[in-house]
Amino acid sequence: MPSGSAVLDSDFRYIDKKGNLLRSRTELSIAEMLTFLEVEYQYAYDIILKDGKRINVDFKTEKGLIEVIDDEKDISKYKELKHKLSDTKIIAIGHPKYAAQLRELDDIVLYKTKEVQTGSIFIEDPSFAFDYAHILPLVEKCSILHGHTSLVMVELVGEMKNNLLIDFGEAKRIVKEAMSILDHKFFINKKYLIKEDDLHYKVVFDGPKGRFDLQVPKNTTYLLEGEATVENLSTEIIKLLVPKMPKNIEAVGVYIYEGYNKGAHILSQISKP
Question: Which residues of the chain have pLDDT under 70?
């Protein structure tokens, strides 16, 4: 059954291309703009003032500092930076509601955005299941050829439009298409591939139980970047889902249940061109 919940922007976290965990959409927009302009930056940079006090500023670049004004504490910090670092270029970016408190200072960018409602939904259905075989040479118990029937649940996070994140029918269709690609496949790490022809892969590897030397049909084999773990399969499903998602979807999560009370969950932010 699908279910949903409202998520505040303050509860949602954003990650830039450097892997920094950002606090808001505004910070993410600044990070993406600096990256686009090929301006090197450091996030959450600690500045030590002459009196020894340490202040954390949102962005440091070669040209100067950028501080995002999200609350009253940010205003106080920005004023202190302007006062004590008078020779340093500093710009603040904030909501117009802070204009009265910042009007006496230079280098202010005020923005006003519409209220954005971020939502998340979970979609599960008996049709979101796939059968597969795999081998994990690095795990003794799983180092022989064996199979599973796994159930999948998908989580979608993004900006609501008209109180709707995505049509459940469309989401279900996208997930089922991904399942059809993976169903009844043999998953194996591509590093074990030693040669191939038009119809077959040749995979060879050593495991705790001995040496495997297999010739497998291409049309029933799925080569992975990394071992065929349930965590890696979750990531692979995300790769299949993301290109089909509408632009308002900002993150995709996949739960795979490999057996009773056993599985994996991967949540990934979408980065689209």
Answer: 1-14, 95-116, 260-261, 271-273
Class of domain 118-269: alpha beta
Q: For residue 159, which of 112, 94, 106, 113 has the smallest C-alpha distance?
A: 113
Distance between CA atoms of 90 and 67, rounded to whole angstroms? 8
Residues composing the chain: 273
Segments making up each domain of the chain, as ranges? 9-110, 118-269
Q: Could you tell me the two tokens for 128?
A: 């979101």
Give the whole-angstrom CA distance, residue 60 versus residue 77: 15
CATH class of 9-110: alpha beta
| Local structure of residue 63 (DSSP, 8 states) | S
Q: What is the pTM of this model?
A: 0.59
Measured CA to CA, the distance from residue 204 to residue 263 in angstroms comes to 27
State pLDDT tens for residues 189-244: 999 999 999 999 999 999 998 999 999 999 999 999 999 999 999 999 999 999 99
What's the start-to-end Cα distance of the chain, in Å?
Answer: 32
